[in-house]
Amino acid sequence: MALRSSNRRRNVWSVSLLDVQRRDRVLEIGFGPGIAIREISRLAVEGYVCGLDHSEEMLRQAAKRNAEAIRMGRVDLRLGSVDCLPVFAEPFDKVLAVNTMMFWGQTIDRLKELRRLMRLGGRIAIAHQPRGPGATDATAAARGEKIAAALAQAGFRQVRVQAMNLKPAVVCVIGVNSLEGGVPPADQCYS
To answer: What is the CATH number that goes with domain 5-179?
Structure first.
C-alpha cells in the first residue's frame, strides 16, 4: 500500500484539504501504512497526531514509518477502530479517514461520535477512491455525494466535495463541526 504512488498522492492531497496547523490535534481513522500520519506530523509540529487502525500489520508499518515522531511524543498510534473509540483527554481540531468509511457500520452514528470528539469549528475530511472492476469517475462522484449527505445528517456544516484527477477519481468530502448541527450524542465506547 505504501509503495503505490496513487496511495501516496491520495493521502497527501487529503491531508492538504484539512489545512493542518502547527498546534493542531489530529485524529486519523484507519491510518494504514502511516503515509497521512507522517504528512500530518510534518505540519502539526507542535501538535498531537493520533491514529487508530484495526490491523496489527498496519500498526507495525506505520510505527516504523513514523518512528521519530513517535519517539518525540507527537504521534500516537493505536490498535482500534471507529466502532469503539477510546476516550481522549482533549478534543481534536481535525479528523481524517481515507478509504475506510465503506467498512464502517452505522455510518451516521460513527460520524456523530467523531463529531463529539472534535472542537467547534474543527474540520473532518473523508476521502474515497473506488477500487475494483467497473470503478469510474462517476462511481467516485456518486460516493462523494453519499458521504456529503452522511456528514450533513451527522451535523457537520459547510460540507463540500473535492475531486482529485486519478483513475478513477478520488473524492474528499470536507465538513465543519458547528453548533448549528446540534449537540452530538455522548454514547462512546470506553476502553
So the answer is: 3.40.50.150
Rounded CA gap, 21 and 25, in Å? 9
Quick: pLDDT tens for 63-111. 999 999 999 999 999 999 999 999 999 999 999 999 999 899 899 999 9
Neighbouring residues of 17: CB distance < 8 A, sequence distance ≥ 6:
125, 162, 172, 174
Which of 62, 121, 74, 122 lies closest to 95, judged by CA? 122
Q: What percent of the chain stands above pLDDT 70?
A: 91
Q: Where along the chain do its domains lie?
A: 5-179
pTM: 0.91
Grid cell locating 64: 516504523
Preceding amide of 184 cis, omega within 30: no
Q: What is the pLDDT of residue 4?
A: 62
pLDDT of residue 187: 47
